[in-house]
Amino acid sequence: MSISLESFDNQQAAAVVSNDVAARVRAAREAVGYSIEDLAVTCGLANVEISEIESGLDKTPAKLKRIASALQLPLSDFLTVEI
Length: 83
Prior knowledge:
By secondary structure, the chain is an all-alpha fold. The chain has a domain at 35-73. 58% of the residues lie in helices and 0% in strands. The protein contains four helices and no strands. The longest helix is centred in the first third of the chain and has 22 residues, at 10-31. It is globular and about 25 Å long. The two termini are 18 Å apart.
């Protein structure tokens, strides 16, 4: 048996994708050795905003773009496309 997003309702699917984005942001930050504070200073967001993104509570595209730029990554590294 396999699990795919098709087996979830829209709210559950959004949570899965959001958590994946959150995990990718955290992994990218940790890969360059940044603390949340370091990333916040670099991209101009508040510590709490970074924490909310990494916990899956926020996935504002403009904030993700600022984080990607600060980490010198394409925004697409954080996004997933489920088919």
